[in-house]
Amino acid sequence: MSSIYIHIPYCKQKCHYCNFFTVISTKTKQDLIDAICKELELKNDYLQSGKINTIYFGGGTPSILDNSDFDKIFKTLYKQFSISDSAEISVEANPDDINASKLKFFKSCGVNRLSIGIQSFNDYILKRLNRIHTSKEAIESVNLAHNFDFHNLNIDLIYGIPGMDIEILKNDIKNFLDLNIPHLSAYSLTVEEKTTLHYLIRNNRYPMPSDSESIEHFNLLIDLLNTHHYEQYEISNFAKNKTYSRHNTNYWKNLPYLGVGPSAHSFNSKTRQWNAYSVSKYIQNIKDNKMYHNIEVLSTDDSYNEYIMLGLRTKWGIDRKIIKENFGKEYSLYFENLLLNPNVRNFVSIDGNVVILNLEGKKYADRVASNLFI
Ligand code: SF4
Q1: Is the domain 300-370 a CATH 1.10.10.920 member?
Q2: How far is the CA of 129 from the centre of ligand 1 (A)?
Q3: What is the pLDDT of residues 16-35, one digit of tens each?
Q4: Is 115 a pocket residue for ligand 1 (Cβ < 6 Å)?
Q5: Cα-based distances in Å from 333 to 293, 350, 374
Q6: Which terminus of the chain is more solvent-facing, meaning fewer CB atoms within 10 Å of its CB: N or C?
Q7: Would you say 154 and 181 are in contact if contact means Cβ atoms under 8 Å apart?
Q8: Does ligand 1 have an atom closer than 6 angstroms to the CB of 292?
Q9: In this predicted structure, what is the pLDDT of residue 210?
């Protein structure tokens, strides 16, 4: 199982909370598409595990691209890689980019999963986040995706936003449920440095999101989604009828992936490498056949910590057998010892070899994971 991620850095405007690598001007677009295609060619042997099972266009806002841009990338992908007939092919899209002709085009090139960045169905909240679309456009985009038979559909929502009371969140979840969407990614708002949100909070223009409010929102989310038979298969991801994101599941299971485009990361089980966080530098590096901007060789401690951090977030949890087999006796003893610590033990359930977060643990996943780190 292996995956390809393609980073499209363009956005029409910058959302206040966003710290992804994005740029507003698209004047580099043609050079960037050419560089992405060349990078796919240069790295066509990076993944040595046979067929590609998932392809994911993320960003930024991939839906900004023209059909001809996607066409070029898809032609290169199919020429350079062996792509499974049943591959999951996902595109992130913003509601304001979704229209009938784009959806028809996506269908024609095999895109079978859409992830729509909605964040909220409340216009006041959308404005506070500096989102470009309205709630009406968000609802219309989902209905249109249904009309074009995109059954494998995700939307993103954010909770814990200053000014978002519990009724607003209830209404967001209600809208999600009414729209009959099989998958939800719901994230607690985090205030990242160097974002506009950080600036606004520091200057007392917005209040700081409160932890207790975030937990209250998280509890409501879990409660309502459980009632409606959505499975929380990862801390921030809920799916009905096992419509898991196969691409993200590959990340969480630490499987290899190739990332192309500016700022994209790749992982081959032993090393992690990433491209320049600059469109012009990225394009120049690819022109110069420079394979990666940076490479980090993962130590056994790094790999163990990653396994703990990713595994604990999912319903598949941490497998004690895997710790013993992949990392050895010393790591296994270390893990077993830490498992006795009340700061871990009280937040997990153990079923044979498998350790998963319990309901309380899900609220403090990062803290519990760090208590198990080397
Ligand atoms: S659309 Fe997405 S990637 Fe672009 S600025 Fe907003 S949150 Fe960031």
Answers
A1: yes
A2: 10
A3: 999 999 999 999 999 999 99
A4: no
A5: 37, 16, 12
A6: C
A7: yes
A8: no
A9: 86
